[in-house]
Design a protein that fits this description.
The chain is an all-alpha fold and about 210 residues long. Helix content is about 70%, strand content about 0%. It has helices at about 5-30, 35-40, 55-65, 80-115, 120-140, 145-155, 155-165, 170-180, 185-210. Helix 1 (about 5-30) packs across helix 4, helix 4 packs across helix 9 (about 185-210) and helix 6 packs antiparallel against helix 7. The relative contact order is 0.12.
Amino acid sequence: MFGFGPEMIFGIPGLIIALTVHEYAHARAAVYCGDFTPRLQGRLTLNPIAHIDPWGLITLFFFRFGWARPVMINPRNFKKPRRDDILVSLAGPASNIISAVLAAILWVFIYKLGYMQHWVNQVLWMIIIYNVNFAVFNMLPIPPLDGSRIVMNILPYNMARQYAQIERYSLFIFLIFIMAANTPILGSFLNIFIIPIIDFIRLFIAILVSI
């Protein structure tokens, strides 16, 4: 069912880039906002070894659901805790969109030079796909995803505390999400809301790089 085909091999660079860039952006943004915890933990690097969780990469590769090593931050070190926590949360998905745009620009450049090979086309396309998907997925308001951090910093304090309690059920929620992805209810949700967002971003990138 999960055969190790050519498409999966072409997707390895995309997965590693998406995970690494995402976590590095969190670390860089946190340090910029005044929290040096990521630097002390050695996360201020683009070396994938510092960011990738082996089991998270394997499950993401085979089951389309996984994780990297989360960047630990201390919001109390931020100059403006709520604002900066939102900025740090946005940095990860934003970096994935930027990575997808850069991959698309490189694709156009190579194509116009006439040097496009099948494997290059596949690798660059998978880099775009994984980065866009990773950005959209992480913006879902489910703790501990980035979207939930943004919501928690917007809500009043008491509501944010109650909302944060959802995180204890996150693994269960994600398992249900994966298993029910092909059911009529959740499948419709993905088709109506999530997939159109992903398609829109891909279209936007295509238009942007063709200008």
